[in-house]
């Protein structure tokens, strides 16, 4: 299997090369050159455990890796989940189930991809002998999931910048109480934008980047998308004949479009899914796009579902590639116009498999309350966004992207009770061990020179 860039101006890569590269040199994102047809395999896959299913699926893509290696990597990646099913499908009523994607080490769905990516990086370092320094800025979930994907891995150091005092207490503790020496949580005296600007500067410094082989934790790595495909297949395989016949709708709380894109790809590979619901918070660029064809950036307004507070949905480019007939030249034209003007209107893109909704903070609070009233189920603020205008004649599968205990204040306000999770209780009183830097690029460069692992 070969991988191509959505912008068509980079060389084809093998799986391990595409994973090691991240963003393609032409600025595009990697995709499989052709998609396999998984429909004939579904019967054989029906009774597999989650790791077995993941292995069978990834085997179709990681064709330049030894199967034994892949097997070990997949098994290790799902060994730190607290539930045997890995992704339990919880039935709320006849037409509605919740796929719980929050039983990984940091209690958010990003663990599915970042546990696997961490193990793939480790394999790469063993193979090449070159160390990697992972660098990123976070406003919460991605940073902690990336840290927990790389904990204690040989040859990797991870530097995560976050705005001091502006991530939640629990998110900060997930990043700063690991006691692993390869983890560098750095509190910045500034905003998330300041932290992100510092990271951007570091990547722009060719010297620094080459000397320390700096690597990003962004959501665009091919391996992250493929890892996320697996739970759509897993969920579909749990359904009975009747549920499938009614038509299966996945309802996906969406920010960067990474999660829902993975689901859509499995449909392109032959999984019989009728459609997808793109559920956004008040930052509704994607809701507007799927309802009107008009894609336009507006300012981000912080919400109670902060992991969906995004401006530009970077993974949308992968969907765009298919919707313009796999024509990289058209992808480049759209992306250039979008970059220049901050907006683009699609005349003829096929959005028939999608519907979209948005929810503001007030509705999120009310919805957490009504879900609890109706089903005695506690949904986190991101998951709550999915419970809007569901078509009860269909089989709806809501993706639960975070554990409610990660957002105790919102749940407390809505339900008058505080959800807990053992892994969070365990770290609540642990001392924070972090580094502090002023919001200056120079300070980060100095810090990296002192702490990053060079390949000399
Ligand atoms: C990252 C995240 C999302 C959004 O996922 P995308 O792939 O960016 O659409 C939703 N909910 C939670 C809890 C997240 O951490």
UniProtKB/TrEMBL annotation:
Requisite cofactors: pyridoxal 5'-phosphate
UniProt keyword Amino-acid biosynthesis present: yes
GO biological process: threonine biosynthetic process
EC number, as in UniProt: 4.2.3.1
TM regions (residue ranges): none
Keywords on record: Amino-acid biosynthesis, Lyase, Pyridoxal phosphate, Threonine biosynthesis
UniProt catalytic activity: O-phospho-L-homoserine + H2O = L-threonine + phosphate
Pfam families reported for this sequence: PALP, Thr_synth_N
Residues modified to N6-(pyridoxal phosphate)lysine: 110
CDD domains, per database record: Thr-synth_2 (cd01560)
Domain Threonine synthase N-terminal: 2-78
PROSITE patterns to which the protein is assigned, alphabetical: DEHYDRATASE_SER_THR
Pathway: Amino-acid biosynthesis; L-threonine biosynthesis; L-threonine from L-aspartate: step 5/5
Family to which the UniProt record says this protein belongs: Belongs to the threonine synthase family.
NCBIfam families from the UniProt entry: thrC
Name the record gives this protein: Threonine synthase
Organism per entry: Cerasicoccus arenae
Organism placement in taxonomy: Bacteria, Pseudomonadati, Verrucomicrobiota, Opitutia, Puniceicoccales
């Amino acid at each position: 299997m070969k991988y191509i860039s959505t912008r068509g101006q980079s060389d084809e890569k093998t799986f391990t090369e595409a994973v090691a590269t991240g963003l393609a040199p032409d600025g595009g994102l990697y995709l499989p050159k052709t998609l396999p047809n998984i429909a004939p395999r579904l019967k054989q896959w029906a009774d597999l455990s989650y790791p077995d299913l993941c292995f069978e699926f990834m085997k179709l893509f990681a064709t330049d890796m030894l199967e034994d290696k892949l097997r070990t990597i997949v098994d290790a990646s799902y060994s730190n989940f607290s539930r045997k099913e890995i992704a339990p499908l919880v039935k709320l009523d006849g037409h509605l189930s919740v796929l719980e994607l929050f039983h990984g080490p940091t209690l958010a769905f990003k663990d599915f991809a970042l546990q696997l990516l961490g193990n793939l990086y480790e394999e790469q370092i063993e193979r090449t002998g070159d160390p990697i320094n992972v660098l990123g800025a976070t406003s919460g979930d991605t940073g902690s999931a990336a840290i927990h994907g790389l904990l204690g891995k040989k040859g990797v150091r991870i530097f995560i910048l976050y705005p001091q005092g502006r991530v939640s207490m629990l998110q900060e503790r997930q990043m700063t109480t690991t006691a692993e020496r390869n983890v560098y949580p750095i509190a910045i005296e500034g905003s998330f934008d300041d932290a992100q600007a510092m990271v951007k500067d570091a990547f722009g410094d060719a010297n620094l980047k080459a000397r320390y082989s700096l690597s990003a934790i962004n959501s665009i790595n091919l391996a992250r998308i493929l890892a996320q495909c697996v739970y759509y297949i897993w969920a579909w395989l749990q359904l009975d004949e009747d549920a499938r016949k009614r038509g299966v709708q996945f309802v996906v709380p969406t920010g960067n479009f990474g999660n829902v894109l993975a689901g859509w790809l499995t449909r392109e590979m032959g999984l019989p899914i009728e459609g997808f619901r793109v559920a956004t918070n008040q930052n509704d660029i994607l809701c507007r796009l799927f309802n009107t064809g008009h894609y336009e950036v507006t300012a981000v307004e912080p919400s109670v579902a902060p992991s969906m507070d995004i401006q530009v949905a970077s993974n949308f480019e992968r969907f765009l590639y298919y919707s313009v007939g796999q024509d990289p030249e058209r992808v480049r034209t759209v992306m250039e116009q979008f970059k220049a003007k901050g907006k683009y209107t699609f005349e003829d893109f096929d959005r028939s498999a999608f519907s979209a909704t948005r929810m503001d903070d007030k509705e999120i609070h009310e919805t957490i309350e009504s879900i609890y009233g109706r089903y005695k189920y506690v949904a986190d603020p991101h998951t709550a966004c999915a419970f809007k205008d569901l078509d009860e004649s269909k089989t709806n599968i809501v993706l639960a992207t975070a554990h409610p205990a990660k957002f105790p204040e919102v749940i407390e306000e809505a339900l008058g009770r505080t959800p807990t999770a053992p892994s969070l209780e365990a770290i609540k009183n642990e001392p924070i061990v972090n580094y502090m830097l002023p919001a200056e690029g120079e300070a980060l460069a100095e810090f990296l020179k002192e702490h990053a692992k060079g390949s000399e």
